[in-house]
Amino acid sequence: MTYDQKEKCNVIIHSASVAAAGAGAGLAQIPGSDNAVITPIQLTMVIALGKVFDVSISKSAATAAIASASASVVGRTVSQFLLGWIPVVGNAINATTAAGITESIGWLIADQFDKGLLD
């Protein structure tokens, strides 16, 4: 990955992670409701990352890439159901996990684009 590509990925991934954190924090008391907001954020991130590597990726291919990279969503869902309903604490936990998972997915996908594994 070139320096320029890494810088572009940084901006894309961190922006998506901040947006996901905001959605996670704002919707913490309604279990599962943030998925409707976070999934499009992650789809947009994957498509934007593809552009960094000159790969045109469809929405369905981006969805498949996210699905294969997001096995950790199960842990996030469990933490949300156990602690997400608690005001303040739940918001913080939900925001942190949403951002962390989005960040992880972003860098995993960027690495796969860089290695030519996604096209």
Could you please describe the fold and organization of this structure?
- This protein has helices spanning 3-26, 35-52, 59-69, 73-83, 89-114.
- With 119 residues, the protein is mostly helical.
- The chain has one domain.
- The longest helix is centred in the C-terminal third of the chain and has 26 residues, at 89-114.
- The mean pLDDT is 81.
Provide the descriptors you would attach to this structure in a database record.
single chain, 119 residues, mainly alpha
Helix content: over 70%
CA-to-CA gap between the ends? 16 Å
Q: Please, what is the oligomeric state?
A: single chain
Please give the count of helices: 5
How many β-strand stretches?
0
In percent, how much strand structure appears in the residues? under 5%
The coarse silhouette is elongated
Radius of gyration, Cα only, in angstroms?
14 Å
Q: Class by helix and strand content?
A: mainly alpha
Can you tell me the number of structural domains? 1
Order of helices and strands: HHHHH
Low-confidence stretches: none
Q: Average pLDDT across residues?
A: 81
